[in-house]
């Protein structure tokens, strides 16, 4: 059933819905982004090695992937309103739990629950966006991804300061507050009909007899594109601050560098939202974004301290543009909002499972080599491969069923 003609929200309701989506997006990364600047404190308090500590990023990212693959039955049972609300509540509860269960087992368990909450929102919010804002989909998706990166920037910048005031566990737990606030805003905004499928029962019972995505090679081709692009994001989120701390930089400085990089990612997200409509061929912007990221990576390996500021700027602009572009590229392939949401869930499922391996691999390298330079090099090779795969997605080509 084509739902592209479903009723759109009024201007006021649309602004409130967009604000709620932005508030939710702000909470999708702080539980991970706040860990990196505090990793030395966490390792000292819990006795974790780098490989174990990497699970605090690897597990949420992996759960995002698993949750995305399971999103259709979840949407069938919950719908988008309740599913997104549950996601926000789970994020808030898992952050709050870190103030109480601050040992290795508690932190790892909270990482799993965070991943489930983020998975619910990330799989369902783009469906709402495409249905409620069909003519401004690219713009609102840019706002959504900007919120994701903005939350990471704030978490990275404030982690060290909050840790000095309330301890590292308290600094992690404070992110429960905006998560619960976002849940309240969503409950108010989601009363608009555009926040839910017009006929969820019909959709749930299988009104899409099209060929399953796992039988379509083009759908599989999108998985490593999103996976490699997200790998770059998750790798720097987890290991950029420890990389600088290992080189003798202060914990606060390392946190501000990550915040500066994520601030550049926010700028990139804004630029994508403003200008992506002018580029129906997404390949040009994607290649430009990858080029910026590669230059930044070269500086990160060759002159990480002396060129720290330009390196963070280039990395942030590159990675920050790659992230929304991969999502937009996937959702370009199908016009129907629900069907395109199912595609994005399939692509994110495999892609985030791939992306979850990059922090783990970096942790293993750090334990064995005491150096993360090789991780940045491997990330650069992954981005080159991703850019090459993107070339197959020319506008006007074959679309998915």
TrEMBL record:
Q: Does the keyword Phosphoprotein apply?
A: no
Any transmembrane segments, and where?
52-71, 83-101, 107-129, 141-162, 168-190, 219-240, 252-277, 284-303, 309-331, 343-362, 374-393
Taxonomically, the superkingdom here is: Bacteria
Pfam families the record matches: MFS_1 (PF07690)
Keyword match Transmembrane helix? yes
Instruction: Alphabetically list the UniProt keywords.
Output: Membrane, Transmembrane, Transmembrane helix
Q: What is this protein called?
A: MFS transporter
Organism, per UniProt? Answer: Brevundimonas olei
Describe the location of the Major facilitator superfamily (MFS) profile domain by residue ranges: 15-398
């Amino acid at each position: 059933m084509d739902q592209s003609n479903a009723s759109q929200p009024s201007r006021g309701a649309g602004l409130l819905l967009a604000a709620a989506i932005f508030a939710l997006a702000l909470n999708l990364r702080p539980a991970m982004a706040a860990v990196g600047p505090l990793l030395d404190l966490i390792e000292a308090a819990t006795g974790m090695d780098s490989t174990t500590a990497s699970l605090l990023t690897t597990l949420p990212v992996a759960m995002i992937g698993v949750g995305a693959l399971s999103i259709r039955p979840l949407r069938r049972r919950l719908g988008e309103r309740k599913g997104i609300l549950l996601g926000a509540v789970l994020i808030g509860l898992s952050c709050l739990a870190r103030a109480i269960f601050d040992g290795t087992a508690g932190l790892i368990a909270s990482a799993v629950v965070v991943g489930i909450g983020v998975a619910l929102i990330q799989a369902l919010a783009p469906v709402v966006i495409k249905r409620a804002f069909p003519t401004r989909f690219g713009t609102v998706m840019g706002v959504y991804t900007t919120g994701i990166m903005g939350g990471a920037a704030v978490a990275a910048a404030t982690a060290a300061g909050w840790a000095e005031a309330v301890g590292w566990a308290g600094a992690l737990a404070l992110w429960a507050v905006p998560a619960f606030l976002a849940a309240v805003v969503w409950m108010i905004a989601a009363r608009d009909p555009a926040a839910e499928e017009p006929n969820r029962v019909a959709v749930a019972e299988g009104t899409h007899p099209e060929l399953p995505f796992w039988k379509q090679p083009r759908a599989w081709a999108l998985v490593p594109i999103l996976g490699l692009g997200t790998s770059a994001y998750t790798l720097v989120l987890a290991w950029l601050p420890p990389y600088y701390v290992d080189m003798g930089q202060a914990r606060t400085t390392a946190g501000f560098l990550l915040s500066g990089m994520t601030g550049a990612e926010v700028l990139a997200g804004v630029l994508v939202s403003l200008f992506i409509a002018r580029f129906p061929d997404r390949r040009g912007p994607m290649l430009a974004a990858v080029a910026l990221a590669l230059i930044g990576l070269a500086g990160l390996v060759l002159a990480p301290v002396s060129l720290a500021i330009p390196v963070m700027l280039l990395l942030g602009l590159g990675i920050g543009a790659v992230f929304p572009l991969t999502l937009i590229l996937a959702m370009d392939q199908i016009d129907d909002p629900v069907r395109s949401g199912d595609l994005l869930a399939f692509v994110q499922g495999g892609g985030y499972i791939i992306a979850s391996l990059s922090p783990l691999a970096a942790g293993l390298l750090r334990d064995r080599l005491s150096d993360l330079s090789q991780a940045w090099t491997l990330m650069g090779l992954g981005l080159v491969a991703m850019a090459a795969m993107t070339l197959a997605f020319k506008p006007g080509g074959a679309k998915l069923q």
